[in-house]
Amino acid sequence: MNKMSIRKRFAVTVRGFGILKKYCPGLVQGKALYESINSLQPFVTVWISARIINELSAQQRIKNIVGYVVGIVLINFVCAVLKNSINRVCNEKETQMWNWFGKIFSDKQMSLDFEDLENAKIQHQKQEVEENLYMFGNGLAQLVWGTSGLVRASMNILTSLTMIATLFLSKSGNTSIDNPIWSIIILLCIVLGGLSNSKATVKENKVFMKWCKDTVWFNRTFMFFGRELYMNPEKAKDVRIYKQNTIAAKALDKLIERDKENQADIFKMSISPAIACVIIGLANTVCYLFVAIKAFFGAFGVGSVVQYIAVLQRLGDGLQELMFILSDNEVYCIHLQKLFDYLDIPNHMYQGSLTIEKRDDNEYYVEFHNVSFRYPNTDHDVLKRVNIKFKVGEKLAVVGMNGSGKTTFIKLLCRLYDPTEGEILLNGVDIRKYNYDEYRSIFSMVFQDFQLFSFSLGQNVAASVNYDANRVKTCLEKAGFGNRLKEMPQGLDTCLYKDFEENGVEISGGEAQNIALARALYKNSPFIVLDEPTAALDPIAEAEVYSNFNKIVGDKTAIYISHRLSSCRFCDEIAVFDNGQIVQQGSHDELVADENGKYHELWYAQAQYYTEKS
Ligand code: ADP
């Protein structure tokens, strides 16, 4: 466990509170208020009880006794009402807290550079922080719980010290008992009790941190064995045919090995608290004896004995809790720091500020100028000196074998990545200089692995909570979803999938594809790109979808991507990708006529699939 300086811990804790204030407003404050009342209440009760006993054992003034009794009842009543209401609010907020934590991660994920979403190291970093938080409360939740403990401990210590002062100040008449050295001995005993527990906590924390480091590994193993390997029917065939369960059993040995190590750690952990218990017991005995002897020599009445014993107990508890909180703080600061390391991952992509002129004539020219690209942490270019210019309103096809760089080309076009070399220009200006959100808004994409979400059909198409229902319907009809729409139980309000709605509708792959096409149409951007959303279809069906879609895109610049040449032959211009380069460009007839070209080779290699259509 890396040591963190007190100063750093303080700064980290303060930043943690800042995040809680932003994402979970009122939670920490509510908990602190609840604990303040909860900690003060017993002291008031003990103090008044001591007065009642003193009164009963000495002057027995009825008026005073009644006053104390009424006071105690009233105070407890008010405290109970306050505590109850605050507790209800806090419990509700604490249940919500986990959802709010989710928002912290989603906000950061959304703001990360796209390449960082594919960066395994960064995503592992996020997973470790997130799983530790959700499994153990490590970091932010510990800070919330620790706040309650800190307030409780501080209140206990401060109030106890105030109420215990008279134990040392009152005189018994016996010089050895009244010697101030006893005050020091008693306080030392209490501190010793607190410290002994903190040693145990430090040991526990060390073992706990070791477990926490393994969280991601443990979860992955658990999910793999528990869910994937044995419970996923799709994998069952391979598991049985290739007897994968024997390899799996070997890997499970590792889990058992870890379990043995954990057992040894648990045994070690249980020794320290036991020793701490003995020390605390001895320290308490010395304190109680001191109170009893002082009362025996007449320093105070029986009521005060009750008060001092109760308060000494609370002081000891308070100190032990404070020590616990301080060593716990060390642990959660390490987790908080890990969270901050993730939240502080900077954006490297240049964020330009130029606005994009809104043009009704859609006169947007995009040009790739000597663009090369290499994925982060890889050693070769997947795009090499690509040069291409899109003409406004043109239907461009991008074809080539799988892995030739077509999708990467599109990722660069919509600026999910920046080129490693060269530049992409929009109306003559490097796209990095434009405002990123505005630049993205001129593209509608339908990716191969497009995603729909568990929102209503209308919201899925419009990608917005509020939408123009007529326009959504028109887009769905154009995209071939018209008949299915009529069957939807609540029309556009029908929820897709069942994650949030019991009555949600499950849709087929083809239907999902139509909705995704409608979403691209609804966005009404000047550029529209279809990156093989039809890969699951056979070549003839894909060709039909592409050419039907082409009829409805109107005057937009459309880019069709496919590894199947037949799907794109209707396009004005076809760019042939091979090994990251554009090796040919032209119309279908021109390209197929070039017998030495890649297009000719691919066309005839694939011809068997669509000879009836060609
Ligand atoms: P296509 O769309 O033509 O099938 P891609 O553009 O998807 O080709 O892939 C081009 C090359 O880039 C392939 O060799 C692929 O393995 C590699 N590649 C794609 N995505 C990544 C990535 N995120 N990280 C590293 N390499 C990638």
Q: Any overview of this molecule?
A:
It is a single chain. With 614 residues, this protein is of the alpha/beta class. The strands form two sheets. It has a six-stranded mixed sheet with strand order 6-7-8-3-9-10, with helices on both faces. A four-stranded antiparallel sheet has the order 2-1-4-5, covered by helices on one side. Among the domains are: 338 residues, ABC transporter transmembrane region fold (Up-down Bundle), CATH 1.20.1560; 73 residues, P-loop containing nucleotide triphosphate hydrolases (Rossmann fold), CATH 3.40.50. It contains 21 helices and ten strands. The longest helix has 53 residues. The structure holds adenosine-5'-diphosphate (ADP). The site of adenosine-5'-diphosphate has 12 residues, from helix 13.
